[in-house]
Amino acid sequence: MNKKRVVGLAFTYVGSVVGAGFSSGREIWRFFARHSVSGVYAVGIVAVFFTILAPVFFKLGKKCGIENYQYFFYRYLPQPFSYFFDLIYSCFLFGSVSVMLAGSGAVFYNLLGLPYLIGVVITLVFVLFTLILNREGILAVNSILIPILIFITIYTVISYLSETVFIPVKMVVSKDLSLSKYNWIKDSLLYGSYNLAMAIAVMTNIVYKEEDDDITVAGIIGGILLSGLLLIIFIGLTTAFADRPSQEIPFLYLAGKAGKGIYLFYIIALYFAMVTTATVNYYAFTKRLISLFKVKYETGLLLALFFVLPLVPSGFSNLVDSLYPLFGVLGMLIISFYSILLLKRKK
Prior knowledge:
About 80% of the residues lie in helices and about 0% in strands.
């Protein structure tokens, strides 16, 4: 087992999931924290997706000789399902990149006082520069940025809780009363399916040349890290908000209460989250365009811009609230097909 390779793959897996919606707390509130105590059970269900199903599906793809996600669809699904899911997965990817770019624009505008467009352009230039280095560039960037992101996130929540000793009681009583008793089950399945589907799309392009043991260990480590981060952010949000947060970036409230220094570090961490997710998803989407239009890698990088940029002006919170629940439903269908394939191979 190549330990350095395992670490790089694990952090890249984390980077494919931990984007602006995750690190900002926006999607954590939407799918978990608003359920109050029941949200803990939802986190447990999603942990199964992250730590058990993800490494199984990553390795399954390699064993089946699947180099990219569209190969899976056209080899194992009948028409017109193959065309439909290929289109949906492509929408997943460029929709996610658009969310990350919109989030970077929001960070520059709302938090740094700089023009929204400047944030988008700077992020896009960094992403394209990284992708010129191909797979190795992705692994290197994630190996550097993701550990920093994890440390700052954990430190922010611990610092906030240490400043608000009595606030955690809110976690027992805060709840969105408009939700039914078992809505947390639906939300956990939607969230787990969507993020697993996204991770498969990204990691399939990266792990197909890796060793089986490296893939499995990296998937488990990455899943544990993701589950831990999810739980930590959940605890922070449920202690901070009794009702739906009015802030576009809820986690920023915790960072502000924890101190000015932590506030600044969190802004950096949030931006790192956007960059890493935008990078891995842009890479997977570019690979699809290369296969579809038979163009060079560099041409595919530029071609992807025509799909990604039109959604960016919609804004960060609007994209998260509207796209993610829809993608969750479609993600469940995709994961179901992967599960059927896994069962067939075992037989």
